[in-house]
Amino acid sequence: MHRVTHHPCILRGLFTALALALILSLPAAAGESLPDIDPVLKPAESLFASLQKKDYAQAWSYLSQKSKGAIIGRITEGSGPDPMTSDAVARDFAMGGKLSRAYWDSFLERFDPRMILEQSRWESVTLDDDRADIRITHRKAGNPLILRMFKEDGVWKVGFTETFL
């Protein structure tokens, strides 16, 4: 009966060669499969930071066109007997004017941006060419928030109404 023993140096060399082959093959695969998500995350985080600082003109700049249109539409529809034009509402929001402050202050009475910025895990991003979903879970929530993002003219914007309303 012959007993076969493997010399530790041979096994170590084989393991090292396999590990090296695996490591050398990773950069190409990783570069192809992992897109840069920072351009998606930055405007989302910046929106909530702007709301926290009550810099409403800056917050407005991070919203998708669809979100801006929906907000403007809701305000012009509810503006009473002397309706405001869409252009006047858009200008007010772009400057952080009186209407903008009233709208965002009301929103912030029900929502604290720190819940997203400080008390939540930003878990994953599902990314397509012109749409992304950011999965955010608050520490006390059972279900995540899926924040919708849209690429407009090469820049990622937050789908505020698409997410919250």
In short:
With 165 residues, the chain is of the alpha+beta class. It has helices spanning 8-33, 38-53, 56-61, 65-77, 86-95, 98-110, 114-117, 160-164; strands at residues 120-127, 131-138, 145-152, 155-158.
Could you describe the 3D structure shown?
This protein has 165 residues and is α+β, with helices and mostly antiparallel strands. It has a single domain (38-164), classed as Roll (Nuclear Transport Factor 2, Chain: A). It has helices at 8-33, 38-53, 56-61, 65-77, 86-95, 98-110, 114-117, 160-164; strands spanning 120-127, 131-138, 145-152, 155-158. The chain has a 4-stranded antiparallel beta sheet. A hairpin with a 3-residue loop joins β1 and β2. α5 (86-95) crosses α6 (98-110). The radius of gyration is 25 Å and the shape is globular. It starts with 7 loop residues before the first helix and ends with a helix. The relative contact order is 0.14. The model is unreliable at 1-31 (pLDDT under 50).
